Amino acid sequence: MTAQSKTFALSGETTVNRLGYGAMRLTGQPGNFGPYPDWEGGLALLRRAADLGVTFFDSAWAYGPETADRIVGEALEGRDVVLATKGGVDKPAPGNIVVDGSRDTLLRQIDRALVNLRRDRIDLFQLHRVDPNTPIEASVAALAEAQADGRIRHIGLSNVTREGLDRALTVAPIASVQNRFNMAETGQNDLVDYTAEKGIAFIPYGPLGANPMQQGAKLEARQALAWLLQRSPNIVVIPGTTSINHLEENLGAWDLV
Predict the structure, then answer these.
(1) How many CB atoms sit inside 10 A of residue 248's CB?
(2) Active-site residue numbers?
(3) DSSP states of 100-135 as a string?
(4) pLDDT of 71-94, one tens digit each?
(5) How far is residue 14's CA from residue 8's CA, in Å, rounded to a whole number?
(6) Is the Cβ–Cβ distance between 238 and 246 less than 8 Å?
(7) Which of 109, 117, 221, 241 could form a disulfide with 73 if both were Cys (CB 3.0 to 4.6 A apart)?
(8) Helix (H, G, I), strand (E, B) or coil at 158
(9) Contacts of 70 by beta carbon, 8 Å cutoff, 6+ apart
(10) Considering only CA atoms, which of 247, 248, 251 is closest in space to residue 23?
(11) Which residues pair with 86 in a beta bridge?
(12) Phi, psi of 19 (to 5 degrees)
């Protein structure tokens, strides 16, 4: 597969278009806290994305919390798209981030995510952050448990080092790594290449250089997205926006590749 391939297969079996959508901004502000105020507009945007060929949508328990999963689930119920979410992080108040990668918390969040996303199985469930109080092997074992009983299809990791990835791989196959990476912040270069070698998707968050707690991109959108799409064939980009116009502009990034 060349870097110009428009699709990538998670774990070699679930094919997604490499230009996806990240749902973090479909929440209340400040701090990505609470439900998105223009709920109907958010539903329309998500459905427009699917109509335009987006097949990969990324969310997380902590976005809202839970409200991003709910809007994604409502908008895309019955659609043939791949839904990803994350767990192991909660947000009881804006700016108050609680990391808990214990088995009981992860399995509880998976069960809630199934309801919120309106799915019988979650396509990709990612450990949002490694819990310093829970070995990554224990967190991944919990996800493997949910995978074995059919609640999730693929396991992913976010905010993880190569060492953490290697430790996780001793427990279960890993389909994706989601770390911050863009054309101005290239500290993950080696991990991009390492995941490519292993057939693992690399999902860069902050693809436009934005502060996750503030609106607005620092990089020119189509140029930044095209750079990522060209960087490596395992990169699946997930730009987020609340504007249908910006959504359509983002999807034009392939024109620059």
Answers:
(1) 13
(2) 63
(3) ---HHHHHHHHHHHHHHHT-SSEEEEEE-S--TTS-
(4) 999 999 999 999 999 999 999 998
(5) 8
(6) no
(7) 117
(8) strand
(9) 35, 64, 116
(10) 247
(11) 126
(12) -100, 100
Confidence (pTM): 0.96
Dihedral angle at the C-alpha atoms of 89, 61, 122, 18, nearest 10 degrees?
-90
Cis peptide leading into residue 30 (ω within 30°)? yes
* Identity of the residue numbered 176: S
Could you tell me the CA-to-CA distances from 188 to 60, 129, 162, 180, 204 in Å, in that order? Answer: 22, 16, 10, 8, 9
Copy the structure tokens of residue 107: 């399995």
**H/E element holding 245?**
helix 244-251
14: β partners:
10
Task: Describe the strand order of the beta sheet including 152-158 as a list of residue ranges.
Answer: 21-22, 56-58, 82-87, 122-127, 152-158, 176-178, 201-202
Binning the chain into helix, strand and coil, the percentages to the nearest 5 are: 35, 20, 40
pLDDT digits (tens, 9 = 90+) for 13-26: 999 999 999 999 99
